Amino acid sequence: MRLPARRLLPATALTAASALLTGCFAGAENTADAGADGKRVRVAMMQPPRSGLSPLSDDAFKLSRWSTAETLVKLDEDGDARPALATKWQQSGRTWTFEIRDGVTFHDGTKLTPEAVVTSLTKAATASPKPRILDGVDLTAKAAGDKVTVTTATEDPLVPQRLSSPQLSILAAKAYQGKTVDPVGAGTGPFELTKVNGTASASLDRYDAYWGGKAKAPGIDVTFVPDGTARAAALRSGEADIVEAIPVSQAAVLDQDLITEVPMPRTNTFYLNTEQGAFKDASLRAAAREAIDAESIVEGVYEGRADVAEGLLGPALPWASELRSPVEHAKAGRPNGTEITIGTFTDRAELPEVAAALQQQLQKAGFKVKLDIREYANIESDALAGRFDAFILSRATVLDSGDPAAYLYSDFASKGTFNIAQLASPEVDKALQKASGAKVGDARRKAVMAAEAAVLAADAAVPLLHERVIQGDAAGVVDAAHDPRERELVTADTYVK
């Protein structure tokens, strides 16, 4: 397959975008006083707030990335829970007891207490709709002296990981006084959210009483820039210090020293319908797998800015490759003109190109391939109902808990709610149940990889590639976070020279 040339952004587009951004960042530039404390950090972010920065929505991840709202625990690189606003915890059946960190104050000056923690967790647990980390989870919180107890309806080994979700941030009582949750001046992090200008911008100032030590930057000025061309231009012109989510098509025109490609826990996967149609035949599933050249897709569609998949779980989970074992597959059969229909959606710009590449590869192997490409909202129900022989999906492989077992169960268990492969395998179900119930740590990770191997052995899915997020940091930026889970961006250690 002939690879397309890299798509270059015209200089005129960059000039126009730069002019657009100049007005957006003008106010931030005026406040970027260089002094003993350095400069304020100017950030260009992709998505504007959708719910007024309520932590009970996906806006919670912005609060986390600005280091203004914090949770009881945080996750390390392996997805294990580590202390944050809670210093330690222990489990007793369905109940977990958390010791709350002493000496922490909210940005309004009030103290962090067990009662404040209970208020935040209860608001989240009783919200409608609930934060997705609590979907299907019945959770109650109570204050017990200087501790907080969290009880679930059934025993849950992932409670600490769940409590790391930015949607379960702990805020001051003032945040809950209105009809919506208002995080302004209500967090505990090194930066205090002081002003939100609708969907245009936000400002944060350093909180000098932060329990973890004084931040190195005096503040953060955020501008929401949905247009990828404009975000790229802001980095190139020096109008922004940190730029998130630079599109692949524009990365090539930027100074490569200013770009960091961060592996995401997201896999582009080719799901095969194991219940009906051509791919009910395991030998034809094997033939499809052998026909696919993922490397050419990475180079041609993603311009080399993705990682060829070795399994369902990618480099964003560094332990996965270390624990992965070879998989035995069924012998490939002969397609002999077998007709198949592949579905995917337009919402992610690269997926139609991926579909076209797969069409060519599978036709070369002897399949007759038809494509059905629509908006996701118009195609999801057909995919879940098994109306395609195969489906291409870009899928997050860890949910808010940082644990991949839930994704694997959802997508490949016979009772999974997102089982596009229509897989019903006793061997796979057994492996998934073991992974879901295993204790957090090495035992759970090994069980997860055994479940991945069972899915791959069935050829229910062919992992193609792992996506990356491209982040831009100006030359003067020091210690910006490069977080695969997109929970951190500007931390207490981040500053601009």
TrEMBL record:
Span of domain Solute-binding protein family: 82-417
This protein's record includes keyword Signal: yes
Pfam families linked: SBP_bac_5 (PF00496)
CC terms in the record's Gene Ontology section: ATP-binding cassette (ABC) transporter complex; periplasmic space
GO biological process, one term: peptide transport
GO molecular function ontology, one term from the record: peptide transmembrane transporter activity
Domain of life: Bacteria
Name the record gives this protein: ABC transporter substrate-binding protein
Organism: Streptomyces caeruleatus
